[in-house]
Task: structure prediction
Amino acid sequence: MVNRKTVAKRMRMMGTKGLSPRALVPVTTIQSKQKSSLPDLAKRLFDQGQLNRAWVSDIIYLRTGEGWLYLCAIRDGHSRRVLGWAMDSVQDSQLVGRALRMACTLRGEAPDELIFHADRGTQFTSRRLWQVCQELGIAQTVGRTGVCFDNAMSESFWSTLKTEFYDRKKWPTRDGARQAVARWIEIVYNRRRRY
Result:
């Protein structure tokens, strides 16, 4: 067995640091007061064997010195690539709509059988987002409330983002965090990281 101080000394000499995940922010899904009638079409089968069959999404809180920065990301269930993302100081259906439109722009027209899966947060069950999905020709689907496994692909991405990148330093400004996260998504996650 090796002493903890010896390990810490060797790590300093090699220029490496240990990383412990930070505690999660409690209750990130704020359910709408109106009961949503959206079904769960994904049934936890996010990879349906080909591109553009299932897109998954969620919103995460990123801490900065200026307050929270909210990130909405949309990923393809098959390729796991981030297709669309949007960041803002408020989390609303417009944030999700911007990310969804970015994904559609990247992939062109949405195929007929594409589903867009998320949790039951108010941003995802709002009438405004339903209208955006109708306009783009995408079927909306949501998991059950409080069941993280129903949106596990998004939760897994948040863990990767925070553990491998975001929690490794402090972010004094929203703008600095926004630029760094965008760079990490587009250059590191989408192009270099192996799945």
The CA atoms of residues 83 and 195 lie 15 Å apart. The domain at 52-161 is CATH 3.30.420.10 (Nucleotidyltransferase; domain 5). The chain has a mean pLDDT of 82.
